[in-house]
Amino acid sequence: MQILFFVAIGVIVFCLIGLLLIPFLSRGNRESQRVLAAIGGNHPDREGLHGLARLEDGLLKLAHDIRTRLGLSVSSKSIDRLAAAGYRGPNAPDFYFAAQCLTPLAGAFLGSFIPSNTLFWVFVFVAVGYIFPGFWLTERARIRRNRIRRSLPDVVDLLVICVDGGLGLDQALIRVNSEIAKSHSDLQNELTRVHQEQKAGRPRMETWQNLADRIKVREISVFVSMLTQADRFGTPIVKTLSTFADDLRTKRRQQVEELAEKTKVKIIFPLVFCIFPCLFIVLLGPAVLQIASSLKDIAH
Q1: pLDDT, tens digit, for every residue of 196-245?
Q2: Where are the alpha helices (DSSP H) in 86-184?
Q3: Burial of residue 211 (number of CB atoms within 10 Å: 0-12, 13-18, 19+)
């Protein structure tokens, strides 16, 4: 029984390490993936990829088989959460399912080493392990939304330049996508999806509204509403984009000023608890030592 227990532990640890290494180390050639995706291939050519890519395929295939045999389907809410965090690949649901299965097992393994109240700690670690993937996914989505929010003013400025130069909104979108591929990759992926939906035949305003629903960033929602009103009432798009860009810059400046004002209050705590005691020791320490020495001499 002990041998089986240690074998099970070894398998769990191996799968967990492989799961953690998948998104960071097992990335194939991007050029080959882009070419194969363009010609309609579902999977990139795995012959030229290293062993970690084959490990990724094995783990994800195992997770997919287990999920299929158990009859567990991925809910639309989970797919939306994965998309909000930037994971839209076909293997993203299997990866998330594998994380939800392996992290509770790893928690049970860690909790078994606590000598007192072992069963209680195993239960606690299993619960934390089950909650952790969802928490991590929510945090990743929040970080991605912040990156998109920070990159929006630059993208709008580029759109203003392109539209002012004579390009239409769709052509300006394609041009801006090629310029922000490296600096603002998150927003570039979202705008690429907007362009692909338009090529598939969806109306322009519907694709922009889908963008606002996916990202759920207030600035993006305002931007889409502005484009909708400009398209409905015939407002010049250049003037609308310029006004919106100025508003974004003004709001960003106001946010920085607000954070600067809050710093004056927040710095009180390190001053009181860290800096002032050190100053008191430096300034009053010699005087206290001298007074103590004088009192000692008087006592003698």
Answers
A1: 888 888 888 888 888 888 888 888 888 888 888 877 877 778 888 888 88
A2: 92-111, 118-164, 169-179
A3: buried
Average confidence (pLDDT) over 102-116: 82
User: Cα–Cα distance between 167 and 164 in angstroms, integer?
Assistant: 7
The Cα 198–Cα 232 span in angstroms is: 18
Tens-place pLDDT, residues 261-297: 888 888 888 888 888 888 888 888 888 888 888 888 7
For the chain, state the CA radius of gyration: 28
CB 118 within 8 A of CB 112: yes
Other residues' Cβ atoms within 10 Å of the Cβ of residue 56? 23
The residues spanned by each domain of the chain are 1-22+58-145, 150-253
Mean pLDDT taken over the chain: 77
CB count, 10 Å around CB of 78?
Answer: 17
Burial of 57 by CB count in 10 Å (0-12 exposed, 13-18 middle, 19+ buried)?
middle
CA–CA separation, 110 vs 122, rounded Å? 8
DSSP state of 74: P
> What is the C-alpha separation between 61 and 50, in angstroms, rounded?
17
User: Which token pair is 198?
Assistant: 């338009």
pTM reported for the whole predicted model: 0.66
Distance between CA atoms of 181 and 291, rounded to whole angstroms? 69
Question: Distance (Å, rounded) from C-alpha 34 to C-alpha 76?
Answer: 26
